[in-house]
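Researcher: Next entry: Zn-dependent membrane protease YugP (Oikeobacillus pervagus).
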Amino acid sequence: MMGYLIYFLLLMIIPIWAQMKVKSTYNKFSKVPTSTGVTGAEVARRILDENGLYNVKVLETNGFLSDHYNPMTKTVNLSTDNYHGHSIAGAAVAAHEVGHAIQDKEAYAFLRFRHALVPVANWSSNLSWIFILIGIFTTMTSMYLLGIILMAAGVLFQLVTLPVEFNASSRAMDQLVSSGIIRNSEEREAKKVLSAAAMTYVAAASVAVIELLRLILIYTGMQSDD
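Model: Predicted structure:
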């Protein structure tokens, strides 16, 4: 019983810690202006133009840290604070989202793979627990196994997301420095923002993998009971 309690506490604590980390880091560096004084929108536009992505628009979107790149509409969408703000945090986030646009232009393999997994991951994640619960209550191991397979598709999506996000952050740092948007003394702060944001994806993937492994162990126990 105690083992299960610790397990579920870990599943709760890991993502909460990651969210607190990214929020505290972002809030800290959202108050630190860049030496060049450019806004997040200007950062995105400059990097896009320097990479020949004139067709990609930079738009303002509502919400806190709701920034994202939409490959369907070819738009970099920045939250209000980052769109209008002059902070290191805003510049780092804007450059990161443009990093995804550059990946899209270059047909980055992991990005393409993740896009292909989106519809599969969406419905498989919703259906997986239905089959797992059916398998538990009816002791039908085949139903339980089907649920695990469906959940594995969602876990695969989480894992593929990691190289996509880390690569976008790497591209962001290269672009921020090469374009002169941030100075050498500001690189460390920008990296902290990007690293903290990446931890949310690492946490999500870790929780997903741990839960999948637990279900696999339960399945092997069901098989041995048979």
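Model: Note for the record: The two ends are 24 Å apart (CA to CA).
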